[in-house]
Design a protein that fits this description.
By secondary structure, the chain is of the alpha+beta class. Helices cover 31% and strands 20% of the residues. Helix 4 runs antiparallel to helix 7, helix 10 crosses helix 34 and helix 32 packs antiparallel against helix 37. The N and C termini lie far apart (102 Å).
Length: 1290
């Protein structure tokens, strides 16, 4: 037995050994192969170097020849183009002077409106006299409809003509029109009287417009609720939505009507504040927040037994009422809980002590308004008047006004709250329904304005922040991705009547809009040169305009676009963490806020091409104040080539007199040409009814006129407005009267720009079709030399772009192409990315062409993809004095470019053809070698795989990309985006199908009828009329049951709503709400409501924010009761009597503002040089696989380009990490989030502050209970009309 066991063990051991040997023998070929690949495969470094050199030489000479680079450069030199030093300080002074003059005209215009309005209000009229005015909602602009046919609808005929100056909107320059909101009773005596006397403003409106043809909409917003605007235009109504536009809610009105304020809101959250009371109280607070702006400071405290901050981050402080902070308040309001008993003493003491500390603490830091102070007490009743607290903290100086809001119908609770308000220069209101919340909240504004009104003569004008207007046509000049940016100037209008009882009535606010486009016209970009730019900042440090102000996300307006800080758009080169406080940047920002003259140098990071490319450069900044405004104008110019500018002009007068020169238009005789679409070369000042001519047509017209006798340039853009003390004769000399013909022909021409254009046209007049470009190529083998060049082009400093197509290539492609010609799309000369990159790269390599392809090339038709190659032309006097004059370039068919790339890299350089006997393992044709052409930012220009085109190299070969960074081939540069939008994905629930039956049809019909009724009831809140205590507190909005599918749904107009909307619409959404593809693609069916902003005179146009997002109202957060036949997601079962609300938006996501960061890459060309020559960089990824193999690679700079050739061994199956350049969100923990919210940059308070008048105590009006007036009748009429219209449409 022992022997058997021993034998068995011996046998078992032999079997194991045999198995191991067999496995090793089986694996030997594989291991041997790996070893061979690792050690026997030699990277063809020498071949890579030769390929890169040959490719570079070939495409350089070919591009030079086709673009006629040397011819154009010689023409600039022989044309005696010289260099002039750019004096940035003098330049910004001149520009600021022009902008200041323009702004003064606007201020003078609103002052004239104000003066006439105050005088007109003193006139006495008979109440029975009819009022003649044009109702903006009752205009008939069509002459084809007879008057009799529209008499029954109270319409009036009025001729309206499309006007370029007003974005093509049909207007009438002879009269103004009046808009009366639905919630205002148009026949109320005070409304009728104000409409009557304000009719006198028409003459003033017209006079202002004749004096200043750049004036936009002029308007007067009455305290009674109507808006008179000039010129008259039709108010486009939405049949499905009541007209709730009210000028008194717009920022220009509220800012002008009262001085800045520090405010503490005390919200009673005791146990009695439940149900409808709680909802009304929240609405009161929300509406108070809507009346605040960036010059106000606020905090909200909940109080019951204890008094605590609504937002814990805002502990014991007042915060600026900017968009982000208001959003935090609104987010927190949905979390409040009611409990215990209210301790009013603690709450009032907390508020008074905070306001007192604020006065001393913020006295020097710029925080706090240091003007009006107010406590807003929102409660359902107080047990005492707390006279002792008021006498201790507020008497006898009454620095703090107290406004009290009694929630509910209890009459016995009015006395104490009314006493608090009346004893502290405040106002008391009782709010019983949701419908009256807005009107009752607005009552505090005239009280704040009392000291200002009582002084009478002190009319301080205000300037709003930037806002967007979509009244114009998308793509029109001056539009920022479809939205026109504007600011407004406004001034209060006081009642000068003397009455027996002391009063201080605000009649309204007069204002006008100022498009940012009109400001930018006075800061011409050609004077700043390529990569130079201008910007404007207000006293809060917020950007009015800046090239990196990006107000749009996926064609939708961002809600925080109008509060972007200057420190968020200028990224210093030293910024390595989010929101780092760079001292140089903050010092420059402080100078801008303080309106100091500034001159500073900073190293910055500039991102291009939708934040996919980056440039590092030093820039010099210059700034000056714009007198009479809170704005500072600044310019930035690149250090180096930005110090100088090319001076080359053709004196038009001499050219005309020189008979040898011929017609000046001969300079435009060759090739195709276009001008910068946004620049002003020449324009008619009164161009309103001229044809909408292109810049090319206009320059042709004016150059033809210039060759006639008595030509004058009229190059003065602005001049100071007339002095108010001028007599009639002096004023006539300042502004001579013009006949209609003179007015029509009155024009402006930029002499320097036009004469520079003529010089550039002569220098680039080389693209003659009679000259064969191939003849200029030394190598006559054109069949192999022309590798797909379709177009040669040149763009110049004066905005001229001209080109010629290569017949042998363009005839076969462009004729059948669905895409517009490349040069007709990219016609912005120095503002094109390819122009900017070529100029910046000139410092790296003066002979280099800069290549690029579209990032989405892989998704396009391969036959339509073009490679763009551009090279800068500099005028140089020595190594230090140089300036860019033009950029030449070619476009190349990408497929032929790749064929050329393959043809060169698939053959050994030492053999003449690919069919030679060289080893295929040494070429890119081998499966063991992957070859790429990368640009200076790491994007693939060409590879063997067509689908790689335009992609970032790191997404395919991340590990190799990281090795290139470690080898210092590329440099990693971190960029922060402080204007980012983050999208939080929602999960999608399934929806069960519904069988259609007769019963179901009847159910749908009943649902449709009730949906209409409930929609209007909730929209107008008439349901509160019959039993407000039983009415459902509808805090989140309503669905329109008749909404047809649409692609664009909108928010309400104006900066006020933008402040609130972004911070609120997401937070008020239940977590269970689900977004579907149908809801994101089909909105509520609402069209934009024409509410007069900018377009209708108020200056705040309705802006579409996110597709599928429904209209936001102050007290209707979101719209949403779906009917059964509407494509909406399933809703949770636990929704109570009314369904929870959903929010439909892009790709089933919640958009919110956030910070993002991304690492971009830049080629380090100098690192690739050795002894003045480009040498290959040899690298290897060692042990990148479990079997121990590695991946060698070779990198070689392609001479005279911005490209590198990368060859990578593909035999080793290494796992490659993905390196992406998509921005990712910067994560903030609770502490850093609070610190960021509390961090307040330096700001300058508004100069105007009127918060005291010694006689104000004589005014005894301090409020009473709220009630619904005649507007309820109007709303009831609207309800019936809406139901009738809905039935008729069905």
């Amino acid at each position: 037995m022992r022997h058997k066991v021993k034998w068995w063990c011996s046998l078992s051991l032999v079997q194991h050994r045999t198995t191991v040997v067999f496995i090793l023998f089986s694996l030997f070929p594989t291991l041997l192969g790996v070893y061979t690949q690792e050690h026997d495969f030699n990277m063809p470094h020498q071949e890579v170097e030769l390929w890169a050199r040959k490719i570079g030489n070939h495409i350089f000479h070919l591009s030079n020849a086709f673009a006629l680079y040397n011819d154009i450069k010689d023409n600039f030199r022989t044309g005696e183009a010289t260099l002039q030093e750019n004096d940035g300080l003098q330049l910004v002074k001149e520009m600021t002077s022009d902008v200041t003059n323009m702004m003064k005209f606007k201020v003078d215009a609103v002052n004239r409106i104000m003066n006439v309005a105050e005088e007109a209000s003193l006139d006495k009229y008979k109440q029975e006299e009819p009022v003649d005015y044009y109702n903006a909602k009752r205009l008939n602009p069509s002459p084809d409809i007879p008057q009799e046919a529209i008499d029954d609808k109270n319409y009036r005929n009025l001729s309206l003509l499309s006007n370029i100056h007003f974005d093509g909107i049909p207007i009438n320059e002879s009269v103004s029109s009046v808009h009366v909101p639905t919630n205002v009773y148009a026949k109320a005596p005070d409304v009728i009287n104000a409409i009557r006397w304000s009719g006198r403003l028409d003459r003033t409106f017209k006079s202002n417009y004749e004096l200043d043809p750049t004036l936009s909409w002029q308007y007067f917003g009455s305290s009674t609720g109507f808006l008179r605007q000039y010129p008259a235009s039709e108010w486009v109504m939405d049949e499905k939505d009541p007209d709730l536009y009210d000028a008194r809610l717009r920022s220009w009105y509220i800012q002008a009507a009262s001085s800045p304020k520090d405010m503490v809101i005390l919200l009673d959250v005791s146990g009695s504040m439940t149900g409808l009371r709680k909802e009304i109280a929240i609405h009161v607070v929300l509406n108070i927040l809507e009346t605040l702006n960036e010059n106000d400071f606020v905090n909200i405290f909940n109080f019951s037994t204890e008094t605590t901050e609504l937002v814990s981050c805002f502990n014991d402080s007042l915060v600026q009422a900017n968009m982000e902070n208001i959003g935090e308040f609104k987010k927190a309001l949905k979390t409040i809980e009611t409990k215990e008993i209210a301790n009013f003493s603690k709450a009032l003491i907390k508020a008074f002590e905070l306001l007192q500390r604020t006065n001393s603490q913020y006295n020097k830091s710029g925080q706090g308004s240091q003007c009006n102070q107010a406590i807003m007490l929102v409660t359902d009743g107080a047990p005492d008047n707390y006279e002792k607290i008021f006498s201790t903290y507020n008497w006898p100086h009454f620095q703090v006004r107290v406004f009290t809001y009694l929630i509910g119908r209890e009459e016995k609770k009015k006395r104490d709250l009314s006493w608090m308000a009346c004893a502290n220069k405040g106002y008391f209101v009782q709010v019983t329904t949701l419908a009256e919340v807005r009107e009752q909240v607005l009552r505090y504004i005239p009280v704040m304005a009392r000291p200002m009104v009582m002084y009478q003569e002190d009319h301080h004008h205000i300037w709003t922040g930037v806002y967007a207007d979509v009244a114009g046509r998308r793509g029109a000049p001056g539009l920022k991705e479809g939205y026109r940016l504007m600011t407004s100037v406004a001034v209060p209008v006081f009642d000068r009547k003397k009455t027996s009882m002391k009063t201080a009535n605000l009649l309204g606010v007069a204002g006008t809009d100022v498009p940012i486009r009109e400001i930018e016209k006075l800061v011409p970009p050609y004077k700043l040169g390529v990569n130079g730019y201008s910007f404007m900042v207000n006293s809060n440090g917020y950007v009015i305009y800046h090239p990196d102000l990006r107000p749009v996300f996926q064609d939708i307006l961002k809600p925080n676009y109008n509060s972007v800080d200057f420190a968020e758009v200028e990224l210093t080169d030293y910024e390595n963490e989010a929101r780092a406080n760079d001292s140089e940047l903050l010092e420059l920002r402080k100078d801008l806020v303080e309106q100091n003259a500034a001159e500073r140098m900073m190293s910055v990071k500039i991102h291009l091409d939708d934040m996919k490319r980056v440039v590092q450069r030093k820039q010099k900044y210059f700034a000056q104040k714009i007198s009479g405004t809170p704005f500072s104008l600044g310019i930035a110019m690149p250090e180096g080539y930005g110090k100088y500018k090319v001076h080359g002009q053709i004196e038009l007068t001499r050219e005309i007199q020189d008979h040898r020169a011929g017609d000046v238009m001969n300079h435009f005789s060759t090739g195709n040409w276009t001008l910068h679409p946004d620049w002003v070369y020449c324009e008619y000042k009164y161009d309103q009814h001229q044809e909408d001519q292109s810049p090319e047509a206009l320059i042709n017209e004016f150059l033809s006129r210039a060759q006639k006798p008595n030509w004058k340039w009229r190059s003065t853009r602005t001049r100071p407005p007339p002095d108010p003390i001028m007599n009639q004769a002096q004023h006539k000399r300042w502004k001579p009267s013009m006949g209609s013909d003179e007015r029509r022909d009155n024009y402006y021409c930029d002499k320097d720009l036009v004469q520079s254009l003529l010089f550039d046209a002569r220098a680039t007049n080389v693209y003659s079709r009679k000259v064969k470009i191939e003849d200029k190529i030394k190598d006559r083998n054109t069949s192999s030399q022309n590798f797909g060049i379709t177009t040669a082009f040149v763009a110049t400093r004066s905005g001229l772009t001209r080109w010629i197509d290569n017949p042998s290539e363009s005839s076969s492609s462009n004729g059948n192409s669905k895409e517009p010609h490349f040069m007709k799309v990219h016609n912005r000369a120095i503002d094109e990315v390819w122009y900017k990159r070529a100029v910046d790269y000139y410092k790296e390599d003066q002979d280099a062409y800069v290549y690029s392809v579209p990032f989405d090339a892989a998704t396009r038709d391969p036959d339509e993809v073009l490679v763009t190659a551009t090279r800068a032309i500099f005028v140089e006097e020595n190594d230090y004095r140089m300036a860019p004059a033009a950029v030449v370039g070619v476009t190349i068919k990408h497929r032929k470019f790749v064929d050329f790339f393959k043809n060169e890299t698939y053959k050994c350089p030492s053999y003449p053809s690919r069919n030679s006997s060289c080893k295929k393992a040494k070429t890119c044709e081998s499966k063991s070698l992957n070859c790429y052409l990368l640009d200076d930012n790491g994007f693939i220009i060409a590879s063997e795989n067509e689908d790689d085109t335009g992609k970032f190299f790191g997404t395919l070969e991340g590990t190799i990309m990281e090795s290139l960074v470690q080898s210092e081939v590329y440099k990693k540069i971190q960029i922060f985006d402080y204007q980012a939008v983050c999208l939080d994905t929602q999960e999608k629930n399934s929806m069960a199908s519904i069988l259609t039956t007769p019963i179901q049809t009847l159910k749908w019909f009943a649902s449709w009828v009730m949906g209409n009724v409930f929609w209007v009831l909730v929209k107008t809140q008439l349901y509160t009329l019959w039993d407000p205590n039983e009415a459902w507190a509808y805090a989140q909005g309503q669905w329109d049951p008749n909404a047809a599918p649409t692609d664009e749904v909108t928010y309400s107009k104006g900066p006020i709503n933008y402040q609130s909307a972004f911070g609120e619409y997401q937070e008020m959404l239940p977590d269970e709400a689900v977004i579907t593809d149908e809801s994101s693609g089909e909105g509520s069916g609402k069209d934009p409501e024409e509410d007069g902003s900018g377009r209708e005179g108020s200056g705040e146009e309705e802006i579409p924010l996110y597709e599928g997002i429904l209209e936001y109202e102050v007290q209707d957060y979101l719209d949403g009761i779906p009917t059964e036949d509407t494509k909406h997601p399933e809703l949770p079962d636990d929704i109570g009597d009314f369904p929870s609300l959903e929010l439909a938006y892009i790709n089933k996501t919640h958009p919110r503002p956030c910070d993002k960061t991304v690492y971009l890459y830049k080629l380090q060309s100098k690192k690739l040089k050795q002894d003045g020559l480009y040498k290959p960089v040899k690298g290897k990824l060692s042990n990148c696989h479990t079997n121990g193999c590695g991946r060698p690679f070779s990198v070689q700079k392609v001479i005279s380009t911005n490209l590198i050739l990368v060859a990578v061994n593909s035999l080793c199956p290494c796992e490659s990490r993905k390196v992406d350049i998509e921005p990712v969100e910067v994560e903030h923990n609770e502490t850093t989030s609070c610190n960021r919210l509390l961090m307040q940059h330096y700001r300058k308070r508004p100069q105007s502050c009127v918060n005291y008048h010694p006689d104000e105590h004589e005014i005894k009006l301090c409020g009473g209970a709220g009630s619904l007036g005649p507007s309820s009748v109007a709303l009831l009429t609207l309800l019936l009309a809406h139901i009738y219209n809905s039935m008729m449409q069905s």
